[in-house]
Amino acid sequence: MSMAPSTPAGAGASPVSLEDVQRAREALKGITYVTPLQESNYLNSEVAARVFLKLENLQRAGSFKLRGAYNRMRQMTREELDRGVVAASAGNHAQGVALAATLVGTAATIVMPEMASMTKVVATRGYGARVELTGETFDDAFARAVAISQATGAVLIHAFEDPWVIAGQGTVGLEMLDVRPNLDAVVVPIGGGGLIGGIAVAVKSQNPRIRVIGVQAEGAAAMVESHRAGRVVATPEAHTIADGIAVKRPGALTFQLIEQYVDELVTVGDHDISRAILLFLERTKLVVEGAGAAAMAAILTNKVPLRADRIGVVVSGGNIDVSLLSRLVEKGLVEEGRQLHLTTTVGDRPGQLAGLLRLVAESHANVLTVEHQRWHPGQHPTDVEIRMVIETRNQEHADDLLARMADAGHSVQVLT
């Protein structure tokens, strides 16, 4: 979705300035890592452009969120620090706030959705925060956090609707241009909009020529809908594997910054995000969560115009639940023809299964699991159903194996 021409530095009031982001960078020295801006030769060959990955998945607490959380808390008075802080988060902001609170010496209460990744819940507690699980979405958790703030006086640390938080996130953009000032485009995931808002200010204020492109999940595209409406609107739900950007209502401040500075907004599906996660894992040896893979998914699916030669891609976080990652890996292997799930029937007598397994071995495929099923009501009493999971090299290899089974008289059903 193309947007109006971006506003260069100084052309109109902005809730966050380049100077705010630069001050945040000074405050974060020694607190956050200057994460790598890494070029990937494999990705370059895939998209016919030069791709530079800003690896915030390697940041302290596993995402960019510490930047904004710490920059916000450093503004607090001693009296405010004594009252503590409270925040709502699906996971990454939770960990950023928890770690920042420890660093500045205050107590943190974090409200997370009940279905939040257990990996992120455990990590948040590990950074010293008290965690409360409430509701199904970020918005439910946020309502509870507001109530706690009002009842206790704890300072609410918003995930994105705060100028100090936005300025802290914008330091990602400063670091990218420090290394590659000649980027043609920067592609950034969007949830509430704090990350892209800060980056857009930092990038556009220094070089208005650089295109800033935002990416949302199709199941949580509130910022895209808000742009279409010309005002902040909420979506009925936010359903995506990219839990870090599953926000039903973006912020007014971030909406203003995006309207002012961002060139284009696009969406990607969960299937595309899953493929990007697997690509990161297998080809670049990086563990990346759904939100962190969204920007790369947009490039791989040609949602981002590749007239740019040098593209900065923000990999915003790596806090993915291990059980989800294992499911995505298995699904990806199936979709690429590298793992076959199938059923067939053989006679229920000695040697029949051995013959089937020998056929698989002669095809140089590998049996991962095999089991008998005799209970099926439609099955002949003298037959046995065989369920197998077979490892193959690629789709061509899988098709060759299936053809050999058919030639040997086996009726095979591939489970997809």
Write up this protein.
The chain is of the alpha/beta class and 416 residues long. Helices cover 44% and strands 18% of the residues. Among the domains are: 180 residues, Rossmann fold, CATH 3.40.50; 79 residues, Alpha-Beta Plaits (2-Layer Sandwich), CATH 3.30.70.260. It is built from 16 helices and 14 strands. α9 links the parallel β7 and β8. The longest helix is centred in the middle third of the chain and has 17 residues. The radius of gyration is 25 Å and the shape is elongated. 47% of the residues are buried.
- Beta-strand proportion: 15-25%
Large-scale geometry: elongated
- Please write the string of helix (H) and strand (E) elements: HEHEHHEHEHEHEHEHEHHEHHEHEHEEHE
Rounded radius of gyration (Å): 25 Å
What spatial order of strands do you see in the largest sheet?
1-2-10-7-8-9
Number of DSSP helices?
Answer: 16
Cα distance spanning the termini: 34 Å
Largest sheet: 6 strands, mixed
CATH architecture of the domain at 18-27 and 34-55 and 165-224 and 243-330: 3-Layer(aba) Sandwich
Number of strands: 14
Quote the average pLDDT: 91
**Weakly predicted, low-confidence segments:** 5-11
Structural class designation? alpha/beta
CATH topology of the domain at 18-27 and 34-55 and 165-224 and 243-330: Rossmann fold
Helix percentage range: 40-55%
Q: Brief overview, please?
A:
Helix content is 44%, strand content 18%.
